[in-house]
Amino acid sequence: MNVRPNDLDAYWMPFTANRQFKAAPRIFVGAKDMYYKTADGRDVLDGIAGLWCCNAGHGRPKIVEAIQKQAAELDYSPAFQMGHYKAFELASRLAALMPGDLDHVFFTNSGSESVETALKIAIAYHRLKGEGQRVRLIGREKGYHGVNFGGMSVGGMVANRKMFGTLVAGVDHIRHTHGDARNLFSRGVPEYGAELADDLERLCALHDPSTIAACIVEPVQCSAGVILPPKGYLKRLREICDRHGILLIFDEVITGFGRLGTPFAVDFFGVEPDLVATAKGLTSGVIPMGAVFTQKHIYDTFMQGPPAAIEFFHGYTYSANPMACAAALATLDTYEEEGLLARASALSDYWADAAHALKGLPHVIDIRNLGLIAAVELESIPGQITARAYDAFLKCYEAGLLIRTTGDTIALSPPLIIEKNHIDILFDALSRVLKTIS
Ligand SMILES: Cc1ncc(COP(=O)(O)O)c(C=O)c1O
């Protein structure tokens, strides 16, 4: 039975216009495969995998069963100085899935915590290597790395930063890659702008590279509106980091676990960073969990000194929580059995055709796509940025489609179990809505 409270006041909702929402709430009461069920009994097609996370779809039997079983068998195990088998099994499976030398895994409970963990590993690593002066962190304009202080500081979304004081000291940002008119309506990775990676050289010249610990980027900047890396851009960033002894961190909280048609963006772009932050698709969003992958040489740098000494003074009460590990293992099984980590690749042409067919509709000024991600950028109403996309969001919801908007960009990123007929339904609904908004 669904509990229906008549007082919505106490819950302070995150990243939500609370008063507007509570005046006209949108409540989900169920979910199965590609669809949510609303409190008023309607089915809503999930065009954004919950919040870029339910990659295996909803209510998947193996994951549900694993969580139920785990709750009865071992509900919690202390994260510090104790272990349980599923934590080690999961780390080994993840290390095997990730290419290259990224073969050690530190568990967290969210994307934000994975980012904080990766930044802390980077700074501590340099100190252990005798380069304690490498403390600066470089992010990118328009980046989103979660909401904790480190991630917010290296992040570059203004609204997420401006209310919170001076943030972490010693952080700078390279330029974003959005806005080159030659790249408008590109299919897949855009052609122009690899040289924007050289902006890292500018910051090296300004701060001296010997003061920089790490550079963190999302391979695809999803939260800021699906901003794609130009051809060759990430490779160039890797080369600059190598030249100056700077660690490169990929924030794969969204791109990880099949979003681009490969297990990770590391595979898709053929660029190997030193650290990778993940979360979301790790458990298909069902139980909060994140994982940070590190290269072997980084892990080995920590594994020195007296064997009885704790090597890294960092961790969370719920790191490698048994329920989360069980959910993640069942999620990996589901991905494997159904070929979901490669599915975006098989569907990406059909997806791209459907997305780019919206070109020419009212207010559409750009369309971008990669793997099973797409963005439809709308021209903003002067003085009312976000209003047009928000209107589209509400109308889509009424029409039975869940989308996500950021600024005036509509972002799409469905569960990887999506079928061609769902893609048709999704873009038909969106197309009809776009024709009605003013
Ligand atoms: C790239 C990236 N990093 C970090 C985060 C933060 O993850 P969480 O909300 O799980 O803390 C997100 C969330 O959308 C993200 O997209």
Please count the beta strands (DSSP E, at least 2 residues each).
Answer: 15
Give Rg in angstroms: 22 Å
Q: Examine the secondary-structure arrangement and name the CATH architecture of the largest domain.
A: 3-Layer(aba) Sandwich
Number of helices: 15
Number of domains: 2
Distinct ligand kinds = pyridoxal-5'-phosphate
> Could you name the ranges where pLDDT drops below 50 across 5 or more consecutive residues?
none
Summarize the biggest pleated sheet.
Answer: 7 strands, mixed
H and E string = HEEEHHHEHEHHEHEHEHEEHHHEEHEEEH
Can you tell me about this structure?
By secondary structure, the protein is of the alpha/beta class. It has two domains: 18-60 and 340-434, Alpha-Beta Complex (Aspartate Aminotransferase, domain 1); 65-338, Type I PLP-dependent aspartate aminotransferase-like (Major domain) (Aspartate Aminotransferase, domain 2). Helix content is 37%, strand content 16%. The chain has helices spanning 18-23, 49-52, 61-73, 85-97, 111-128, 149-154, 158-161, 199-207, 233-244, 265-269, 296-302, 322-338, 340-356, 387-398, 420-436, and strands at 28-32, 35-38, 43-46, 104-108, 136-140, 171-174, 212-217, 247-251, 275-278, 290-294, 364-370, 373-378, 401-402, 404-406, 409-412. The strands form three sheets. It has a seven-stranded mixed beta sheet with strand order 4-10-9-8-7-5-6, sandwiched between helices. The protein has a four-stranded mixed beta sheet with strand order 1-2-3-13. Helix 3 (61-73) packs antiparallel against helix 12, helix 4 runs parallel beside helix 12 (322-338) and helix 13 (340-356) packs parallel to helix 15. The longest helix is centred in the first third of the chain and has 18 residues, at 111-128. It is globular. The structure holds pyridoxal-5'-phosphate. Pyridoxal-5'-phosphate binds next to helix 5.
